[in-house]
Amino acid sequence: EADIYQTPRYLVIGTGKKITLECSQTMGHDKMYWYQQDPGMELHLIHYSYGVNSTEKGDLSSESTVSRIRTEHFPLTLESARPSHTSQYLCASSELGADSYEQYFGPGTRLTVT
Amino acid sequence: EDKVVQSPLSLVVHEGDTVTLNCSYEVTNFRSLLWYKQEKKAPTFLFMLTSSGIEKKSGRLSSILDKKELFSILNITATQTGDSAVYLCAVDDQTGANNLFFGTGTRLTVIP
User: Which of A35, A50, A96, A103 to mutate to test binding with chain B, by most B CBs within 10 Å of its CB?
Assistant: First the structure.
């Protein structure tokens, strides 16, 4: 059973607010990811990290930023939320080794910006 | 540009039917193909396929990869209402960061 957690699960917030979506995993995985998924659409990778102090931008451009100060924690921040940021955000983690491609997903945060 | 295409986009079947979900891909340096099941929240892992022609099986679900024709199928036999979900196909392109490229998914609805 994968142990990866996201909070909050649901968030409704006004335009211009700063928000941080939390993601934590207890599996000791080095690699972590943030995906954005609109209804009926594919998951798009927006950020990933190889480990502590490593952050990379994904395939989909995003106005969000991430940090990785601790192995288990990979928060995503939006400095000024806009309605276009309304989406589901999924966090995932995986081992870093060459044979470990399976990603474990958190339950997701459904963000609505009004 | 790497691409993963799933078909059909949605499917409605009766309990007991057998379904076949398709995933075709174009990636620069293929490493593996993964299937996930996504219900209301997070995708859960089903299979990882790296070699052609070797069927992976788990209960009523099975999957096989064809690296020559660049596709995979996911079969579900004797479907149950609990199989209703979005089934996601993802491909690991080993160029760069070992990240996954996801298809849009197939939404399967199993009615009693």
Answer: A103
